[in-house]
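Practice set, problem 2.
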Amino acid sequence: MQKLLKAILSAGFLVLAISLYFIKWSPGAIKGNENAKKILLIKNGMSMGEVFEIMGLPIEKMGNTNGDSTYYYQTPFAAASNISVSFDHSGRVVHVQPLE
């Protein structure tokens, strides 16, 4: 019975440690948490250069035929929404999507 209890406690600790890694300590979690804070500094009218200086390079870019584009940034683990910045054809911010 004592061995079973030790095994259950060990498994529980392992699950907790792995969960904390993905939520707080992994490189993706750290970057996602930083991005969630930095996106609040981005304002409409800023240039791409100003955004890249604050946010760094995005993980994905999507554009359309009008020359508008949206840049997506790493989110914290299990985030329900995206972190993104949309630019018009002249390279100015027209929409900021922080975490909700």
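Problem 2, part (b): a different protein.
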Amino acid sequence: MSSAPNHALSVMEEEIRLLLESRRALREAVAAAERGRDATADDLRAVRQRLTAKTDEALPHDEQIRRRITSAIESAFTTALRALTARWNQIVNLLKSACERLDEALKEAELRLLQREEAVRQAQQRTT
């Protein structure tokens, strides 16, 4: 048997190994992006709470001004949170889409490998 079929199989196996590594890295990136999204939301909420508390401390006797400032803080942080969450979601969805495309490529590569292995087996049977 020639070494060409063996070489072709090893090239295909290497392709599959690289696809698996890429898929693992992408899945880790998805998890990191999801953690980043959650951490961003947590950070914004904490800053909002600190600003509201500082406003309450600075203006203990002026309820109307405190409410207006607190309302403005809430509005600004809600807008910021929506915008940042939307951007994080775009990143997460992009990474998930890449994972799906990679899964498809992996399935195709594994199918090609199986077909190639079967072709090699059949060729070996014909020569024996």
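Answer key, part (b): The helical segments are 3-58, 63-127. Residues 63-127 form the longest helix (65 residues).
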